[in-house]
């Protein structure tokens, strides 16, 4: 039997958000990514993007296996202005990729939402 989820309210969201923010297992991860993003805010240098892709992929378990290909993909699309303005096209560009040997295009929405959110949290909620 499934239990019913509580009705979302502002109070409930604040409470659960506070629990997330104070979680001793989550807080160091969030702080580490914050430091990384402050050191490398742009997406023009493959080395910087690869560090961000690898970190977000590992810490959030998004199961991207071709991290170098994905980092090159992100650099290729020059998405910084889209991220800054909150344009949803940034998320689509990061998410849509066809890896070598795949017959179909992949849509890595989970990874893309996290990656974009770390660049502009107000515009791209995870």
Description:
The mean pLDDT is 92. With 126 residues, the chain is mainly alpha-helical. The longest helix has 15 residues, at 46-60. The two termini are 29 Å apart. The protein has helices spanning 10-22, 27-39, 46-60, 67-77, 80-85, 88-95, 109-119; strands at 96-97, 106-107. Helix content is 61%, strand content 3%. The protein contains 7 helices and 2 strands, in the order ααααααββα. Strands 1-2 form a two-stranded antiparallel ribbon. β1 (96-97) and β2 (106-107) form a beta hairpin.
In short:
This protein is mainly alpha-helical and 126 residues long. The protein is 61% helix and 3% strand.
Shape: globular
> Helix proportion of residues, in percent?
55-70%
Strand order of the largest sheet: 1-2
Order of helices and strands: HHHHHHEEH
List the topology elements:
Elements: H1 10-22, H2 27-39, H3 46-60, H4 67-77, H5 80-85, H6 88-95, E1 96-97, E2 106-107, H7 109-119
Helix pairs in contact: 2-3, 3-4, 6-7
Task: Using brief descriptors, characterize the structure shown.
2 strands, 126 residues, two-stranded antiparallel ribbon, mainly alpha, single chain, 3% strand
């Amino acid at each position: 039997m499934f239990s019913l989820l509580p009705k979302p309210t502002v109070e409930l969201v604040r409470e659960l958000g506070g629990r997330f923010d104070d979680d001793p297992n989550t807080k160091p991860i969030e702080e580490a990514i914050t430091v990384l993003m402050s050191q490398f805010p742009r997406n023009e240098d493959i080395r910087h993007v690869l560090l961000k892709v690898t970190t977000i992929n590992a810490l959030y378990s998004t199961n991207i296996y071709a991290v170098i290909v994905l980092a090159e993909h992100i650099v290729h699309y020059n998405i910084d202005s889209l991220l800054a303005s909150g344009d949803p096209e940034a998320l689509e560009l990061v998410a849509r990729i066809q890896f070598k040997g795949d017959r179909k295009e992949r849509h890595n929405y989970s990874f893309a939402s996290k990656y974009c959110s770390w660049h502009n949290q107000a515009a791209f909620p995870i």
